[in-house]
Amino acid sequence: MTTPPIQLRDVGYSYGQTPVLESVNLRLDDGDFLGIIGPNAGGKTTLLKIVLGLLKPDSGSVEVFGRAPAENRGVIGYVPQYARFDASFPIDVLDTVRMGRLGVGRRESGRESRAAALALLDRVDLGGMAAEQIGQLSGGQLQRVLIARALASEPRILLLDEPTASVDTRIGRSVYELLGRLSEQMTIVLVSHDIGVISRYVKTIACLNVRLHYHHSRELTDEMVEVAYGCPVDLVAHGHPHRVLPPHDAAGGP
After folding, report:
1. Domain range enclosing 180
2. d(CA 224, CA 203)
3. What is the pLDDT of residues 70-120, one digit of tens each?
4. Helices marked H in 184-235 — which ranges?
């Protein structure tokens, strides 16, 4: 039986007395492209950090290719939600990507590192921008550089936390198209609020709000979304980047 890239069993995690994840079960196969949606503070970023091994669950178990995440970090690439850095820091795009090759036990010359980074920039359609200062990039260009940096370690899994949160719809769509191509070669987990758009590109969708609702399908049922968001949500035809919230009382009052 093939060892799954990611497997969580009854995972729970709390910040102090506040539960963030409860009884989370998830198994992904090679080549899965999972989109995780859910409200703010629903545990999405925490879940990614647990898979990365940055947080240890209070209960349950987490395996990455059959091993503890901390023992297998070299196989995971990560793109965080916010890239906080000094825009005036004098580092160019090429060296930013090369940083992703550090600390993974690889011995290579500077020429080999440079060639690998240039190839990755071509892969994310930024081949002509190697010498640009990172602080001068647009939001969409920066996201592509961060994806290239995450790919620099040659991961088998790619985790992304709201990769299009700071870009407009057109640029966001191009990022999703890039991820769709990458999903042919690796397992991807994408956290996003954009229900309609991600449903056009991912292979499966899960809803997370402390508890995970996942049925190994790319189709969202009304019940799944209502449980996750705490209110009824009507989705327009699958594949369209729109959603409609019918009248409801979000506070639960009369």
Report:
1. 6-88+156-244
2. 17
3. 888 789 999 987 667 777 888 999 999 999 888 666 777 888 889 999 999
4. 195-198, 222-229
